[in-house]
Structure formats: C-alpha cells, structure tokens
Amino acid sequence: MPRAIERAVATGCDALQIFTKSAGQWRARVLPDDEARAFRDAADRAGLTPRVAHASYLINLGSAEPALRARSIAGLVEELDRAERLGLDGLVLHPGAAVGTPEDEALALVAAGAREAFNARPRQRVKLLFEHTAGQGSSLGWRFEHLQTVLERLDGTPRAGVCLDTCHLLAAGYDWRTLSGYRRMFDDFDRLIGFDRLKVMHLNDSKRPCGSRVDRHTHIGQGEIGLAAFARLVNDPRFAAMGMVLETPKQLDASLADPLDIANLRALRGMLRKGKGQRAKGKGTRREEGKG
3-state SS of the chain? Predict the structure, then answer.
C-alpha cells in the first residue's frame, strides 16, 4: 500500500484515491499492521488530503436478493474497516442497482444497508461517500433526488456524504457546460443535498454525450465536457478547499509517475486564474492497489 503514496508524490498529487483491494473480487488479503502503519506515515509526510478509497464494484446495497444483500453489507463493513485502518477520510461507494425492485424500495434498501454497516462499526471516523452515478441500466444515484432520499433515511448522520463525478453528471443529463446550466445544477444540488455533504469530486471528461447514461471517462478536454466547464469548476470559490481526484485512463506500463496523469493535472492546474495558484492543493489522481 505505501507504493501508492510514492506514486502520488512522483505524479505531483495533493489528494489520493485508492482501491484497498481488488474492485472486482469479494476476497481481500489481510492488511498487515506494519503495512498499514507505513501507509499512514507516508501519507502524513506527503501531506496528501483528502485520502479516500473507492469501494468494490460488486457491492450492491440496492439488491433485494438475500444472499447478495448479506454479502454486500458484509463487504461494505470490510471496506470501512480497511479504510479506517489506513487512516482514510472517506470511502466512495456506488449506491447500487435496483435490478427489478421498484426504485423507491431499492433506495430504502440502500439506506438500510448503510445503517446496518454503521451500527456494526459505531466508533469509526471514516465517512461513507455515496457517488453520483451515470445512470446505466438500473443504477441508483444518478439523480440528486436519489442521494437526497438515502441521506434523509439515514437521519442526517455525519458519517454519510456525497462524491460528485463530472463525467457522471453529464451522462446523467445534467448539462453543466454552460454558465446557466452550471448554476442551475449546483443550485439544485445545494437545495436538495447541501454543499456541506459534498466531500470529494472526481474530475473526468466524458466520451459519451449529455444524457447518454453511459459511464465512459476520458482525458480532460478530450471529451464532451470540454475545457471551459472545467475552468469554471476549478475556479469556483465554493470548492476552493474541495479534494478533487482523477479517474482518467492510465498508461498501464508506467513504472512510477503516469505521464497521462501528469498531463491531466497540468491541464487542470493551468486553468487556475492568476493569483489562485494555491487552488492546486487538493487535486490529485486516483491510484489503485495492484494497478499503479
């Protein structure tokens, strides 16, 4: 795990997102105490903040199927445990998919599953961050109202927050590329959820057009969103302290610093208006255990 910190530093990151285990498997190797301690110490020395993990894609709290539901809740508890051991600030989670269950019932299941995980670990400090999704298939969370419903059913617990993804927003139908669209989208978000719940952002351009409900990330400025919208976002004073991470495509043979990550960070930081150089703090790149 400390290798992720080395790569983040070499790339010039200020923030970090990792997988603490394979995102496509239920099983996970045990994190040795010395490895977890070395990760925490290295992250502290590097000054990386925020530090978050992304939960396994297999977890589906919206499922009504008993076996998958039980496995998903157990998997979430394990992910929270691993994030807590590594001293992370948050765990990003896709809310899940309805898969034949009525949407309102599936959202209730998501909240109930999260509550069960919280009750299993009442003293943990790591936050669970529900990610706004692109809306593929029966995915939940692609409307702000979905996230609002889940948070309300959790009775306002401070242990739950939200992660926004720029690609997902466009794909879900939020056209934030114009000034009016940008204002309308964030006005809706503040009204329904509140900026106090927003803890981290994923900055990704979208290969697919607005409203496609297809989740395909691409490099900053090379997709349907374009540079002007990103410039507006990174210079928005409301998000001056917001942790932002990349989930853009990687050069998988990169040994340490990925040149594609460096290029995307350079593009974003180059948009900062004169006199706002400190805004670069809090932007980083996703680093996944075992993938580099």
Answer: CHHHHHHHHHHCCCCEEECCCCCCCCCCCCCCHHHHHHHHHHHHHHCCCCEEEECCCCCCCCCCCHHHHHHHHHHHHHHHHHHHHCCCCEEEECCCECCCCCHHHHHHHHHHHHHHHHHHCCCCCCEEEEECCCCCCCECCCCHHHHHHHHHHCCCCCCEEEEEEHHHHHHCCCCCCCHHHHHHHHHHHHHHCCHHHEEEEEECEECCCCCCCCCCEECCCCCCCCHHHHHHHHCCHHHCCCEEEECCCCCCCCCCCCHHHHHHHHHHHCCCCCCCHHHHCCEEEECCCCCC
C-alpha to C-alpha distance for 246 and 198, rounded to whole angstroms: 16
Question: What pairing do the DSSP bridges indicate for beta strands 205-206 and 217-218?
Answer: antiparallel
pLDDT tier at 245, thresholds 50, 70, 90: very high
Tell me whether residue 291 is in a domain.
no
Residue 274: its pLDDT value, please?
Answer: 67
In-domain check, residue 257: yes
pLDDT tens digits along 80-98: 999 999 999 999 999 999 9
CATH code for the domain of 216: 3.20.20.150
Residue 160 belongs to a domain? yes
Averaged pLDDT for residues 204-225 = 98
| Any domain includes 292 | no
The rounded distance, in Å, linking the Cα atoms of 23 and 92 is: 12
CA distance 221 to 206: 9
State pLDDT tens for residues 221-237: 999 999 999 999 999 99
Range of the domain at 226: 2-286
* Single pTM value for the model: 0.94
Kindly indicate the confidence band of residue 275, based on its pLDDT and cuts at 50, 70 and 90: low
The tally of domains found in the chain comes to 1
